[in-house]
Amino acid sequence: MSATSRFPAGSWAPMQAPSLDDFEAMADDAFKGLPEGFRKLCGEVIIRIEDFPDEDVIEAMELETPFDILGLFSGIGMTEAGAVRETGQQPNMVWLYRRPILDYWAEHEETLGTVITHVLVHEIGHHFGLSDADMEKIEAEAG
């Protein structure tokens, strides 16, 4: 191994970008590491991983490209919900878009886990009207 190489010869050759399943596992771990009070706001949130947003999201958000969005929250938070779920009400969901997140990660210095945690916190936090300072505090408390 040369002094400038971080990898022994050929050890990087089998490396691949994280799959959708890998992302799902990372997002689940990131969510479990968030402060308990914050997780409770989400209720039984479902985290979905897709490579890109679908055409409806691209159109509704008026995105120039599918790389313009890293994640999306849909649903009704615990603070807005009634005591009983409405008939036909969909569960809270956070969508993480794998390819845009990987693209962002490649261009920045943060770890992939930090980026995924950031997207989760911000998608959920914006839905609840949290300030950027509140969300930064939640990210700092994440395990």
The SSE order reads HHEHEEHHH
List the strand order in the largest sheet: 1-3-2
Task: Briefly note the structural class of the backbone.
Answer: mainly alpha
Strand fraction: 5-15%
The total beta strand count reads: 3
**CATH topology-level name:** Zincin-like
Number of domains: 1
Whole-Å distance between the termini?
A: 34 Å
User: For the CA atoms, what is the radius of gyration?
Assistant: 17 Å
What share of residues is helical? 40-55%
Tell me the CATH architecture.
2-Layer Sandwich
Low-confidence segments, given as residue ranges, are none
Shape descriptor? globular
CATH class membership: Alpha Beta
Biggest β-sheet: count, sense, barrel?
Answer: 3 strands, mixed
The total of helices stands at 6
Overview of this protein structure:
The protein is built from six helices and three strands, in the order H-H-E-H-E-E-H-H-H. Helix 1 (20-32) packs across helix 5 and helix 5 packs across helix 6. With 143 residues, it is mainly alpha-helical. It is globular.
Short description:
By secondary structure, the protein is mainly alpha-helical. The chain contains six helices and three strands. Helix 1 crosses helix 5 and helix 5 crosses helix 6.
Key descriptive features of the protein:
single chain; 143 residues; mainly alpha; Zincin-like; three-stranded mixed beta sheet; 43% helix; 10% strand
Topology:
Blueprint: H1 20-32, H2 36-42, E1 46-50, H3 55-60, E2 71-74, E3 93-97, H4 98-106, H5 112-127, H6 132-141
